[in-house]
Design a protein that fits this description.
With 349 residues, the protein is an alpha/beta fold. Helix content is 41%, strand content 15%. The protein has 2 domains: 201 residues, Rossmann fold (3-Layer(aba) Sandwich), CATH 3.40.50.1100; 110 residues, Rossmann fold (3-Layer(aba) Sandwich). It has 12 helices and 10 strands. The strands form 2 sheets. It has a 6-stranded mixed beta sheet, with helices on both faces. Strands 5-4-3-6 form a 4-stranded parallel beta sheet, sandwiched between helices.
């Protein structure tokens, strides 16, 4: 598999670390838990979108674009990293933010990723929940072209065959790291949203003729819908690359039992997972994606779904900026603070 023929720009600190999590492993009684630190990709707090944007912006520049346009939920990690990539390359950027959360508080509305979008210089367009976002993206692109701009439209999460190449390459990186550590990988576990990360890993694993399984925990929709989304994108990406072994249906694994009431709506299991990983490993997950995926992984381990001698890699897709948009949900689980009176300063005699 040769991806060199696809244009790419350097946006990602890679390879990202592959680290063992000894205290979480011990806490859960096995299996052996590893974490792929794609929260360390750099560029405005890092995250998985840097890998996708490397190929997307390579394609944008090849087509002479001077204005990036993308979309996402109000606290979108993808939008934040797209704004950062545009700033780095000197491109204009317009972002469409959908207000999906049913009961947002002030922190969600003004902190976290949405704060960073403005700091990075993006023009922000706010849209109500339920908006036809792909149609809105097309409309903005048409308006910019009418003004003489050369827009490049990026779909939700950067998840099309071009962006998904980032995780085809990441699968190769991960398997190379495992070989260097003489580590046999049994499972890769991750949050599955816009599907590009999971689809790319599935294609990348198949391209390397590896037997490792890729398990996605859905964070935005029912399992059958997410399964269809991942399957379609994996097939389209494999066809885009060409010369990829056939991907069997069983390679697409999706579970939505830990989604809760919907996308970005906190769950007690998510809060526990974020808390446990922070306190046992000093690693911060996020409340929308990795927190829910880790909740699923932890519960499956407790239920005996995995054997103690298996090696599991959890893909940390970043998103920690979102923590600051969920202060109320996360602070309910933190220990009570104690305020101690400072001693009075003695007066000089």
């Amino acid at each position: 598999m040769n991806l060199e023929r696809f244009p790419r720009v350097d946006l990602c600190h890679a390879p990202t670390p592959l680290e063992f999590m000894p205290r979480l492993t011990q806490h859960l009684g096995g299996p052996q838990l590893w974490i792929k630190r794609d929260d360390c990709t750099g560029m405005a707090l890092g995250g998985n979108k840097a890998r996708k944007l490397a190929f997307l912006l390579g394609d944008a520049l090849q087509h002479g674009a001077n204005h990036l346009v993308t979309l996402g939920a109000l606290q979108s990690n993808h939008v934040r990293q797209t704004a950062a990539a545009a700033a780095r390359l000197g491109l204009a950027c317009t972002v469409l933010l959908e207000h999906r959360h049913p009961n947002p508080d002030e922190a969600y509305l003004h902190n976290g990723n949405v704060l960073l979008d403005g700091l990075l210089g993006a023009e922000i367009v706010h849209l109500p929940g339920g908006t036809d976002m792909p149609a809105a993206l097309t409309q903005v692109g048409d308006a910019l072209r009418a003004k003489g701009q050369r827009p490049y439209l990026i779909p939700s999460g950067g998840s099309n065959p071009v962006g998904t190449l980032g995780y085809v390459l990441a699968a190769q990186e991960l398997l190379n790291q495992a070989r260097e550590k003489s580590l046999h990988l049994d499972h890769i576990v991750l949050a599955s949203g816009s599907a590009g990360t999971q689809a790319g890993l599935v294609v990348g694993v198949a391209a390397q003729n590896s037997s490792v399984g890729v398990q996605g925990f859905a964070v935005s929709q029912a399992a059958h819908l997410q399964h269809a989304r991942v399957s379609a994108l994996a097939l389209a990406t494999a066809q885009w690359i060409g010369d990829i072994p056939e991907i069997p249906p069983e390679a697409i694994r999706v579970n939505a039992d830990y989604l809760g009431k919907g996308y970005s709506i906190p769950t007690p299991a998510m809060v526990e997972a974020v808390q446990q990983v922070a306190r046992l490993e000093g690693i911060l997950l996020d409340p929308v994606y990795t927190g829910k995926a880790m909740a699923g992984l932890m519960d499956w381990i407790r239920r005996g779904h995995y054997r103690a001698n298996e090696n599991i890699v959890f893909i940390h897709t970043g998103g920690q900026a979102g923590l600051f948009g969920f202060c109320d949900a996360l602070s309910q689980s933190t220990p009570d603070s104690r305020h101690i009176e400072a001693p009075q300063r003695q007066k000089d005699i």
